[in-house]
Structure prediction request, 231 residues.
Amino acid sequence: MIGVPERTRTRRPKVVLVDVFETMLRLDGLRPRFVDVGRPQHELELFFARTMRDGMALTLAGGAPPFGEVARSALITTTGRTLSEEAVRYVLAGFEELPPHPDVEPALITLATAGVPAYAFTHGSAEVAAKALDKAQLRSYLRGVLSTQQLGSFKPPAAVYHWGCRQVHAQPGATALVAVHSWDVHGAVRAGLLGGFATRYEGGMSDVMDAPHVVAETLDAVVDRLLALRS
Prediction:
């Protein structure tokens, strides 16, 4: 296909970029906040899906506002414009207090033990993500927090992944993106990175996305398989 770089060969990565929301931190930590402001907790899924959709659409149209602004608009729309400004701020503040998935710390410990640097790679504010990762006691395992807000972009354009690689001083073919979102891994693979896909969120592989280099149910198993690859 025109414009699609050659797929990088399967090999052990030298650096790993790890998605944040739902890959490391559990979004269901926001459910009680929806209930607290009088909204049904199932609105969480639609709210986050709209945030991702709008962020990607704005990116395609020529530049996305910060994640917090996109999320605020999606929350107001999803809740039928019934929330006060105070309630909106209260729900969004929950992004700083999301709990971790149980397979994340073992995965990060394995990377640290192997001497492979890991970085958080998020759409959201680097400051918010850092606070959440601190509270989840995961940040000490990470070399840094990279936010695509610096580019005015959401994932998955190739330029976003290439920017991430430059920030960690690694070539795309030596860098892995690990996530539970098949579209995110697809974008990374199309950009020439290694793709590590954990199926615990989507339940399996997509039929329309490019195949990742490594697949397993949990994040720690994905990391184990990445590290088992030959250099």
Q: What stands out?
A: The chain is about 40% helix and 10% strand.
